């Protein structure tokens, strides 16, 4: 059972700020979805390997060669705030 | 003759090379159509009119100079707004990316450009492709061309509606749990989700990376094969792209299903499926059997677990992929933050819509300490069982046949209050993504004037066989020739 406290904890992990109404709503809806997901416990999966990915690909390597890169002004063009060749953010400490 | 905007790509190509029409005329016909119906349909987030005309004239110059142009040259396409287009806003229909202008093209966009297509614009979608009705767009709702009070399906609803309404000849969508096939069914067009790895995801804004796959919307199966020829292929920029040779998909367009073994999974014809949809699928089965296909019932015993499995895995991957939206490098940034963490939290809370937040919350919970094994790992193990069901079925059958969606298009607002009800509209398509195999939806009939889709599911990299069955069905029916009256 997911409590409001759990919702607050998860929201902090996900860097989401939720209103009181949102906390109520998500607690209710996440409980409904996770209760539905309990269905998976009908299955014994002790000896079943997990599938994270369907292709039989592993460690796709390439040569470490110098390629082209975007000019810094294009990289910065979408940023809300920049200074020189840097992304600018509010103070950290 | 039908209006130009309602022809197929291969019909337009024939007219182009015979010099009966020009690419500019096609482009104008489609933009005139957009001007006439877009207020009603709202398929597009962004139109790229000037670029399109410039491009069409370029194709015309090539034809005039006697150059041989590829089959999709001069063909208007619409691109779902989660694929990066250099210099053209790419929003994912989200406030958090409302002003993002990519400095590069997605590989599929590069490939379509090389194929000579003309981009009309970027289409509306459920925010970050999370939804089944396009009602979760952060901007506006798209209407179903067959009945504007109904949804076009989702999440690629704008692309499906654009093709159905004559606002594009073909389109690209992306499919994570049914987001190409279900809107194709709701809008009465052809939609194909390729095998995982067949099409590069480079430049596709990630939702659930182990499930996402780009594919085409078209008016018939021939156009579908042409689009696959243009977009499939290995890409060194996507490490999950499969290193394989790509066949000429048009070579599978044969009016012949004799001896092909088609399985009908009983789980997809049972509880929760509208009887009128079952009736139409039943008729399709009879038709294919009369043409020589060997059809038998089969079983995918873990089908009922696909929905809960999907709704743990997809949100888990999404919660990780969407961590990058923090207001630092691109997109929306909230004002008046006390410090950097406060800026992250305010930006994300104001920038994401309710369904996206719901899935980030769900995914973060499923991955968090103490719940990882019980939810995420458990879901990955059940995913193995679901995949094994398909492996077993394909030992006996070449293709599986099922409805694409449990009902025709539903009314706007009908399912928005209850997330689980909305998720149910993907019960026929989710498992195909979990197994990474290809699926196509083709028009198979109508219920009360609304299109119904039939889904064909194939072996890994078995797109060719899907095209063959779909093409044969199309030669003996005319559902794909019907157009909505707008």
TrEMBL record, chain A:
Keywords: ATP-binding, Ligase, Nucleotide-binding, Protein biosynthesis, Transferase. The keyword Kinase does not apply. SUPFAM superfamilies: Glu-tRNAGln amidotransferase C subunit. It comes from the Bacteria. It catalyses: L-glutamyl-tRNA(Gln) + L-glutamine + ATP + H2O = L-glutaminyl-tRNA(Gln) + L-glutamate + ADP + phosphate + H(+); L-aspartyl-tRNA(Asn) + L-glutamine + ATP + H2O = L-asparaginyl-tRNA(Asn) + L-glutamate + ADP + phosphate + 2 H(+). GO terms for molecular function: asparaginyl-tRNA synthase (glutamine-hydrolyzing) activity; ATP binding; glutaminyl-tRNA synthase (glutamine-hydrolyzing) activity; transferase activity. Transmembrane segments: none annotated. GO terms for biological process: glutaminyl-tRNAGln biosynthesis via transamidation; regulation of translational fidelity; translation. PANTHER family: GLUTAMYL-TRNA(GLN) AMIDOTRANSFERASE SUBUNIT C, MITOCHONDRIAL. Allows the formation of correctly charged Asn-tRNA(Asn) or Gln-tRNA(Gln) through the transamidation of misacylated Asp-tRNA(Asn) or Glu-tRNA(Gln) in organisms which lack either or both of asparaginyl-tRNA or glutaminyl-tRNA synthetases. The reaction takes place in the presence of glutamine and ATP through an activated phospho-Asp-tRNA(Asn) or phospho-Glu-tRNA(Gln). NCBIfam families: gatC. Belongs to the GatC family. This is Aspartyl/glutamyl-tRNA(Asn/Gln) amidotransferase subunit C.
From TrEMBL, chain B:
It comes from the Bacteria. Its EC number is 6.3.5.7. The keyword Ligase applies. The active site is at residues 80, 155, 179. GO terms for molecular function: ATP binding; glutaminyl-tRNA synthase (glutamine-hydrolyzing) activity; transferase activity. Residues 25-467 form the Amidase domain. It catalyses: L-glutamyl-tRNA(Gln) + L-glutamine + ATP + H2O = L-glutaminyl-tRNA(Gln) + L-glutamate + ADP + phosphate + H(+). GO terms for cellular component: glutamyl-tRNA(Gln) amidotransferase complex. Heterotrimer of A, B and C subunits. Belongs to the amidase family. GatA subfamily. Allows the formation of correctly charged Gln-tRNA(Gln) through the transamidation of misacylated Glu-tRNA(Gln) in organisms which lack glutaminyl-tRNA synthetase. The reaction takes place in the presence of glutamine and ATP through an activated gamma-phospho-Glu-tRNA(Gln). NCBIfam families: gatA. This is Glutamyl-tRNA(Gln) amidotransferase subunit A. It comes from Desulfofundulus thermosubterraneus DSM 16057. The gene is gatA.
């Amino acid at each position: 059972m997911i409590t409001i406290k759990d919702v607050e904890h998860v929201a902090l992990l996900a860097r989401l700020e939720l209103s009181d109404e949102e906390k109520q709503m998500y607690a209710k809806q996440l409980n409904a979805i996770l209760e539905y997901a309990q269905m998976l416990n009908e299955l014994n999966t002790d000896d079943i390997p997990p599938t994270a990915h369907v292709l039989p690909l592993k460690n796709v390597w390439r040569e470490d060669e110098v390629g082209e890169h975007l000019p810094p002004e294009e990289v910065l063009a979408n940023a809300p705030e920049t200074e020189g060749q840097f992304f600018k953010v509010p103070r950290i400490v | 003759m039908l209006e130009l905007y309602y022809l197929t790509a291969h019909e337009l190509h024939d007219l182009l090379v015979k010099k009966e029409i020009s690419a500019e005329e096609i482009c104008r016909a489609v933009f005139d159509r957009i001007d006439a119906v877009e207020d009603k349909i709202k398929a597009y987030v962004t139109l790229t009119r000037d670029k399109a005309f410039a491009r069409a004239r370029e194709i015309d110059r090539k034809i005039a100079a006697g150059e041989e142009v590829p089959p999709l040259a001069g063909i208007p396409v619409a691109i779902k707004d989660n694929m990066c287009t250099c210099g053209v806003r790419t929003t994912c229909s989200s406030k958090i990316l409302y002003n993002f202008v990519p400095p590069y093209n997605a590989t599929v966009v590069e490939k379509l450009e090389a194929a000579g297509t003309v981009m009309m614009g970027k289409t509306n979608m459920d925010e970050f492709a999370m939804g089944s009705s396009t009602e979760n767009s952060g901007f506006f709702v798209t209407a179903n061309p067959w009945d504007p009070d109904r949804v076009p399906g989702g999440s690629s609803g704008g692309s499906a509606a654009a093709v159905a309404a004559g606002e594009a000849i073909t389109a690209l969508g992306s499919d994570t749990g049914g987001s190409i096939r279900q809107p194709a069914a709701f809008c009465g067009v052809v939609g194909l989700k390729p095998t995982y790895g067949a099409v590069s995801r480079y430049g596709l804004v990630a939702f659930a990376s182990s499930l996402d796959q780009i594919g085409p919307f078209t008016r018939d199966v021939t156009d579908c094969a042409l689009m696959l020829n243009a977009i499939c292929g290995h890409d060194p920029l996507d490490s999950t792209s499969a290193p394989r040779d790509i066949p000429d998909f048009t070579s599978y367009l044969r009016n012949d299903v004799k001896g092909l073994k088609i399985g009908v999974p009983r789980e997809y014809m049972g509880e929760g499926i509208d009887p009128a949809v079952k009736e139409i699928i039943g008729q399709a089965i009879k038709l294919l059997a009369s043409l020589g296909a060997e059809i038998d019932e089969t079983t995918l015993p873990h089908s009922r677990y696909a929905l809960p499995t999907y709704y743990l895995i997809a949100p888990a991957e999404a919660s990780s992929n969407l961590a990058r939206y923090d207001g630092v490098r691109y997109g929306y940034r909230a004002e008046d933050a006390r410090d950097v963490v406060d800026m992250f939290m305010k930006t994300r809370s104001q920038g994401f819509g309710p369904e996206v937040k719901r899935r980030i919350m769900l995914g973060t919970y499923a991955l968090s300490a103490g719940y990882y094994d019980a939810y995420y790992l458990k879901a990955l193990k059940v995913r193995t069982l679901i995949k094994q069901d398909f492996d077993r079925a394909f030992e006996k059958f070449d293709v599986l046949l099922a409805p694409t969606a449990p009902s025709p298009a539903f009314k706007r607002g009908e399912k928005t209050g209850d997330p689980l009800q909305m998720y149910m509209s993907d019960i026929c398509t989710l498992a195909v993504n979990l197994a990474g195999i290809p699926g196509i939806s083709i028009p198979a009939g109508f219920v009360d004037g609304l299109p119904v889709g039939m889904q064909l599911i194939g072996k890994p990299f078995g797109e060719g066989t899907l095209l063959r069955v779909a093409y044969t069905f199309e030669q003996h029916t005319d559902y794909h020739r019907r157009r909505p009256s707008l």
